[in-house]
Specification:
The protein has 185 residues and is an alpha/beta fold. It has one domain: Rossmann fold (3-Layer(aba) Sandwich). The chain contains 7 helices and 7 strands, in the order H-E-H-H-E-H-H-H-E-H-E-E-E-E. Strand 3, helix 7 and strand 4 form a beta-alpha-beta unit. Helix 1 runs parallel beside helix 3 and helix 6 packs across helix 7. 30% of the residues are buried.
Length: 185
Amino acid sequence: MNKTEKLISNYEQRIALPWDDSLSGSQRVFFAVYDKTDERRLRARIEGFELATKKAGKVWHLCDITNSFADWMGSKDYKESYFEAPDDLNLALGEYREHVAELVAEALREQTDANSLVALLGVASLFGFARVSELVSTVQKDIRGRLLVFFPGEHENNSYRLLDARDGWNYLAVPITYHERNQSS
């Protein structure tokens, strides 16, 4: 069994457990943590996560933000000026963060009930523009069911590091890794 299959298997075990509806938004988040070099393998097997979710009797919704920056930038009338003076882009990144948070919040609001799961794909594309921790904190109030964040990076001692490059942050999310075996709710 390769690492991606192992991650799907561990996810399947986790998603099959009963969900506690009394948890706060920040505790309704799963992080599927995988090695950044496995991004293409994971994307090729995303249907395995969807099948595991449906097998557990949950509703699956995929929210892919991979192209969110390019789409946002492409919609700007003044995009050419950012290529001439890239430092000016820093002034507009707050607007981009709001844009991507609204994309995810909209997907979360589309959840019909507490039995739904939104799978967030493409968080690596936020690197250098927005922080995953801030995005999740911003949208946690909209989580009715669960949010699954596909996270290319590391998890150690409850600290997450995106693409193994940034200082980590502590978060209440439930990690799902290649190595997890016995997981509680």
